Amino acid sequence: MTRPVRYEVESGVATVTLDRPEAMNSLTRETKEALRDALQTAASDEAIRCVVVTGTGRAFCVGQDLREHAAHLAELPVADVWATVAEHYTPIATALATMPKPVIAAVNGVAAGAGASIAFACDFRLVSEAAGFNTAFAGIGLSCDTGASWTLPRLVGYAKAVELLMQPRTVKPSEACEIGLATHVVPADDLAEAAADLARTLAAGPTLAYASIKAALVYGASHDLATTLALEADMMAATGASQDHRNAVQAFVAKQSPIFRGR
Fold it and tell me: Which of the listed residues 16, 197, 224, 246 has the most CB atoms within 10 Å of its CB?
């Protein structure tokens, strides 16, 4: 039986592909478990230096599979239905936001509900001209999950996040780029190549520094200036002691291009 998530590794880049095109890559329990596990595998594998998350077909991911959800509402206790947030959606968001390496969302089509949240939790969002974002949650009487309440205000600001969450609508690629949801918008036929090019560039970069930058940004979002500056000092000391830093300085002095190995 075909698995709903493909995990492929090439030249230090892990590509995680949601592969249920017939269901617009909606998230069944099996799909959520496979996605969570793939992301956690990528996070813990030191050989992986960049991660790409994408989908097949017309959608990036439209969030929860509502057919399965409707069956669960009819058959299971409420607590069992919503255990999926702690078991699946929260670990997925955590893996993306704290991944000690860059994560690219190659948004090939519509990203809605938790699918949009997944994209928001990535570091870069390359968006196809055929794509769009829709938070969707309020449209079916729900709050939000997969980290949207944390990531979205940091991308677009509090007021715009309120608007997009309370009045869900599809944000087209041009607007997504203007308000900060998209890093770049590319023609649909060029998306895979653009994502691969960016992934190769990032994988060849100072991944130890990237991980430290991500950690500092997450920390700084919820701490005051003094404690954030203290963390920055620790991060600078750690990266400053790395072989990557020493090699880069030597390469600069020698007027050569540095080679980074993530250590």
Answer: 16
